[in-house]
Amino acid sequence: MPGLAHADDTLNDNTQNSNEPGAKGNSSPDGTLSAGVIVFDRSKNGTGASAGPVISSTSWTPPACWYAPKYTPAQLKAYLEPIWNAESTGSQWDLEQRNKYEKGGEAPDTYKDFNKDKTGKGYWWDSYVNESFPPGWDKCTKPIFWVDKGDPPPADIDNAVTPKILAELAYNEIRVPGTKVTLAPAGTTKVNLPTWAWLDGAAFKPVSVTASVPVLDISATTTAEPVSLKIEPGTTDAQTYPASGVCQINNGRIGEPYAKGKAHDTPPCGVEYLRSSGDGTYPLKATITWKIHWTGSGGAGGDLPDGTFGATQDVTVQEIQAVNR
To answer: What is the per-residue pLDDT across 192-217, written as a single tens digit (0 to 9) for each?
Structure first.
């Protein structure tokens, strides 16, 4: 039944994906929605094979479903009439829908001929869903509703698209660099020897995604900035530097590259293994925390929950061999 529509229910896609700055979706002179309703500009996003999405550090998640313009009067007619003509939804339901969208106009919340006399002056709004279908994707069940251009959606519609909703959807599109740390000694380290850890500072800069609805002239940019690196050695027989295992980012740098002559110095970021890994390895996990905030149309903005992204790498730890003379 209409009311919980997916992207392929429209005559156009629900989003336009772009890596180009300033990419826009539009409506034609007759008001037809084209080139998508929500446009994502990912030109300032993280790239590379190891890049991945951040995970909220709280129980918060981006919207699983939301409402936005989906149909012009002609598009709604083209969508609904085949459903009614197929008679697959029951004659009573079909009649109620015809009386609401086609043959109404006198009673509240009813319309005449799909509001064709308002073509170009507004849009029919309907639900969209996150196509990965997370929990809550099926909660947007409001019937298709009309909104005049320049008017806000009805107050009782939760998750109607706003700059904040766009910012939360952009959060879902953020991709950040991988977190494989450089270690010194590299490859194999020794028991009781401080191992220095650092990340390529050039790769760990703020990234952002902008989401916009051109037909509503609203947008929001969500930005993620790296703030710290957490090291988990993969065994309790180890100590981290600092003791918390959390290395704060300092002047855009995460950790400090090892320099000759510092083998026995305490690294600002690193780990010291207290026991050999034997014939195996330890799974060292490195996780970056990203502080996330947004700015949007009309001066709106604020913070969103921190996001994390991590990866595991194998570390071989050997005993220091004594030399007998």
So the answer is: 999 999 987 777 889 999 999 999 99
How crowded is residue 201: how many other Cβ atoms within 10 Å of its Cβ? Answer: 16
- The CA distance from 266 to 262, in Å, is 8
Q: Whole-angstrom Cα distance, residue 91 to residue 69?
A: 28
> Model pTM greater than 0.90?
no
DSSP 216: T
DSSP states along 281-310: -EEEEEEEEEEEEEEEGGG-EEEEEEEEEE
Residue 126: burial class (beta carbons within 10 Å; 0-12, 13-18, 19+): buried
pLDDT tens for each residue of 275-312: 999 999 999 999 999 999 999 999 999 999 999 999 99
Which among 143, 15, 126 is positioned nearest to 67, based on CA atoms?
A: 126
Helix (H, G, I), strand (E, B) or coil at 153: coil
User: For 114-125, how does the pLDDT look when each residue is reduced to its tens digit (9 = 90+)?
Assistant: 999 999 999 999
